[in-house]
Amino acid sequence: MKKPTRGRITLRTAAMSDAKKLFALIHANLEEGHLLPRTLGELTVHAERFVVAVKARKIVGCAELAPLSPHVAEVRSLAVDGSARGSRVGVAIVDELRLRARREGYEKLCAFTHAPRYFIHMGFSIVPHLWLTEKVFTDCVKCPQFRQCGQYAMVVPLDATFDAERGYGLPAASGPAEAGHYPA
C-alpha cells in the first residue's frame, strides 16, 4: 500500500527484495553513531516490517515496526538519506509506523535514540529504560554498550495520533494521516 507524502515522496511497505537497499541506507547512517548495525540476513527476514520512503524510485528513508511484546512495538533503524533530510521524511515514516502499531493492537510505541528532541516533537516522552523491560531484556542485554548506553528511551501511547503539522495530539479516530492523507 502506497501513501503519498510531501512532494514526490511515497511511503510503502518494504519487500524482501529491498533488503540490500535497507542494508545500504542503514550502513550509511552507522557512521554518525546513531544506529546499531543490522545484518543483511536480519533485514531480509524482517523486511516486511519496514516502511520505506521512496523518491524517484530510490529508497530515501526507512524504519522498522519491531514487536517487543503484545503491547509494545519499537521504531527501529530509522534512517534517512542525506539528500532527503529536512523534508520531514522521518516524521512521515514514524507517523505511519504509529498508525500501523495502533491498527495492530499495540498500546505504546517506543524508540531508543541519541536524538530525543526529534522524537519529543512527535509526541514521545523520555522514560527510564526499565519502563521498557521488553526492550531491555530482548535486545539491550545483548548489546556491547549495555549499561553504558547513551540512548534515551522514548515512548508514546497509542490512544491518540500525533499531528506533526500542528504539534499536538488528536483523538485516535481523526486526523489527516488516519485517512491516509498527508498535507502537500
Write the layout of secondary structure elements.
Layout (H helix, E strand, L loop, with lengths): L2 E2 L4 E5 L5 H12 L9 H7 L3 E6 L2 E10 L4 E9 L8 H15 L4 E6 L2 H5 L4 E3 L5 H6 L13 E6 L2 E4 L4 E4 L13
Parallel strand pairs: 5-6
Antiparallel strand pairs: 1-2, 2-3, 3-4, 4-5, 6-8, 7-8, 9-10
Helix pairs in contact: 1-2
Model description:
- By secondary structure, the protein is of the alpha+beta class.
- The protein has one domain: Aminopeptidase.
- Helices cover 24% and strands 30% of the residues.
- It has helices spanning 19-30, 40-46, 89-103, 116-120, 133-138; strands at 3-4, 9-13, 50-55, 58-67, 72-80, 108-113, 125-127, 152-157, 160-163, 168-171.
- The strands form two sheets. Strands 1-2-3-4-5-6-8-7 form an eight-stranded mixed sheet.
- Helix 1 packs across helix 2.
